[in-house]
Structure formats: structure tokens, C-alpha cells
Design a protein that fits this description.
Blueprint lengths: L2 H17 L14 E2 H10 L6 H10 L5 E4 L2 E4 L20 E6 L3 H7 L1 E2 L6 E3 L3 H9 L4 E6 L1 H6 L5 E2 L5 E3 L1 E2 L4 E2 L5
Antiparallel strand pairs: 1-3, 2-3, 4-7, 5-10, 6-9, 7-11, 8-9
Helix pairs in contact: 1-3
Length: 182
């Protein structure tokens, strides 16, 4: 499977497992799971055909491990805008986590902190490099440091997804550190 096809299938899966399952007639369960055969058939019925082998390739090779397969079911690992309960237990975060963004968002972040926006949670990375890659999707990245240890001590809950993304509802401004010059 070539890289362009891999990306196309991955984006299709993300859109319909995270944000718009109803567009192709999918009804994920409360945990966001759908039957793989049902997904493949629904996609084909709506003009986008892919095979189980292609789906397995996308799941296996995605560097961000965006999807989880359990038996005959699949779901997105996190990032949903639809209502789901991923069943992730509360976890103790490392002392610092990181968030990639772009410069034009910094004024709002200084005023309001990091908010989930149209997702359920704020997504944080365990290392600067990953945060920089995430921020680079929207332009030149700016990596913020989150004092996750202090947040945890102050009662904020964290969860970590199967692919290592740290999730929390909000990061208030006092817990954020901005890089020099920003």
C-alpha cells in the first residue's frame, strides 16, 4: 500500500470514527467501538472502498497509533468530538508535559489556558519533539510546557490513551510556561 493511500484511508477512518460516524450510518457503542466489517461495508456503501488488509496496514503503521483494534472491533484512540467514554483510568502524570501550538494562538492561551475546544480533552505530549510535530501541523510550532505535577497536586485529573497521549479537561494559565520570546 503506497503512502498516499495509507494517508487517505487513515484520514477517512479518523473522520468517521472520531467525528462523523453518522455520515456513513455508523453507530459506535459508548466506548467508541464499531465492528470492522460494518465499518468497511458502510464506507463502501458511501463510495469509499478499502479492504481489511488496508485497514490493518493503517492501524499497524500509523506512527501515532491513532486506532485500536480489539478482536473484530476498531475505535480511534482519542480525539473524539462525538460523545464516547474511552474507559481510561485516572493516571499520575510526569512532572511536565508539553503542548504544541502556533504563535497566533498564544494570546488566547495566555488568557484562557488550554481548552479542549471541539474535543473532549486537551491533548498533551510526554516529550517536546512530539509536541513540536503536533504544533507543526498548523504552521511554525511553539511548544508550551505544562506543569502537570502541580496540576495533579491541585486535583486535576489526567488520563493516558493507549498511544501515549496525555488527556486532561483543561490547563489553566498558571500551569503553563511559554518559551522565551513568546
Amino acid at each position: 500500500m503506497d503512502e498516499r493511500r495509507t494517508v487517505k484511508v487513515s484520514k477517512y477512518l479518523s473522520k468517521h470514527l472520531r467525528h462523523q460516524p453518522e455520515r456513513i450510518g455508523l453507530k459506535p457503542d459508548s466506548g467508541g467501538w464499531v465492528e470492522i466489517d460494518t465499518l468497511i461495508a458502510a464506507a463502501a456503501a458511501h463510495g469509499f472502498r478499502f479492504t481489511r488488509a488496508e485497514l490493518d496496514h493503517v492501524v499497524a503503521t500509523n506512527d501515532k497509533r491513532r486506532f485500536a483494534v480489539e478482536g473484530s472491533r476498531i475505535r480511534a484512540s482519542q480525539g473524539h468530538s462525538i460523545e464516547v467514554d474511552l474507559g481510561l483510568p485516572v493516571a499520575t502524570p510526569p512532572p511536565y508535559l508539553f503542548h504544541g501550538t502556533v504563535a497566533h494562538s498564544l494570546d488566547a492561551i495566555r488568557a484562557e489556558g488550554l481548552r479542549a475546544m471541539n474535543r473532549h480533552d486537551v491533548h498533551l505530549s510526554a516529550d517536546r519533539e512530539t509536541a513540536a510535530r503536533v504544533g507543526a501541523r498548523r504552521g511554525r510550532p511553539v511548544v508550551l510546557t505544562v506543569d502537570a505535577g502541580a496540576m495533579h497536586r491541585d486535583g486535576h485529573e489526567f488520563r493516558v490513551s493507549a498511544n501515549g497521549v496525555w488527556l486532561t479537561r483543561v490547563v489553566p494559565p498558571p500551569y503553563l510556561r511559554f518559551p522565551e520570546g513568546h
